[in-house]
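Holo model, zinc ion. Inputs:
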Amino acid sequence: MRGAGEPLTVEPLALRGVARGEVAVDIKAVGVCHSDLHLVAGDWPVDEPLVGGHEASGIVTEVGDGVDDVQVGDHVVLSWFVACRRCRNCLSGKAWLCTNTNAVANRLPDGSTATTTLDDEPVWPFLGLGAFAERVVVPAAAAVVVPDELPFEIGALIGCSVTTGIGAVTSTAKVPYGASAVVFGCGGIGQSIILGLQLAGADPIIAIDLDPRRRAQAENLGATATLDGSDPNLVATVQEMTEGGADYVFEAIGRTSTIEQCPPMLRAGGVAVLAGMTAIGARASIDPFDLADQGKSILGCNYGSSVPAVDFPRIARLYLSGRLPLDALIGRTRPLGEVNTALEDLRAATGLRTVLIP
Ligand SMILES: [Zn+2]
Ligand SMILES: [Zn+2]
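Output:
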């Protein structure tokens, strides 16, 4: 990425070898996530040039000194939020809230990058990974070992959207069985939220999307009812279907107009979970009296409140045992060179996940 709003370019770059505590990973599959769209649209200012991509799996090809829990040949899913393991949140077991990570500044933990142009100019790795690439060098903590039999495309999705969506249900909101739930937006994260609600035993599961194909996919994944997002009486319809309001509403788009509709859809004591990412600086309006009077809550959800080293293998095992039909999330695969077309697939907001194969 050489400029916001411009197409990505595919070009040869120089990648240094591994340093202490690092591993090199050959990328075998990388999903195209909504955060990549935010990135190329310029919603989140970044240093350029930069390599996008953060939802990836691959095989370890090299390990640095001091790495003992990952070996050459291991199949890994990459985590885009490498925690410091030293800050108060990390020490409290809340790695997803690390206040000390350089990943969100698109840097390796020491503030550097392993990649340069052929003219020796630094090229920054998106979320510390920069996985729209044939190979990456990342901290060993970013490479979570998964079973060899896990398909790479599935592993890639576990690296972001699946873990975010399932974690939003099971870790952030801790939805109990029988709870009523609404899912706003049926893209990659919304679809994974529906799978998480299925796992948790939520009922009903009401999915909302503008696109009829996305609504059909949502039903296929386990939504018990779907609503057209353009319905002007959406809030009243949800209240009627849930006999007074839903226990949980998940916003998986990151749009302020839908965020504003979440609290009114809740019953007293209900919980809205914001799992979609808005542009930085966006503002949404809420009715604070309704929130206080009705004891409603709004929870923020980053990366599904997950601990990747625990959650990636756990989700992989649920898939391999047939309890999580993650195959249903994969749309088409494309070669890495078609990354701009893959971003268009996502912008159209009609299909399933496009996965790039380097
Ligand atoms: Zn993502
Ligand atoms: Zn930390």
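The mean pLDDT is 96. The longest strand covers residues 22-31.
Archived with the compound record.
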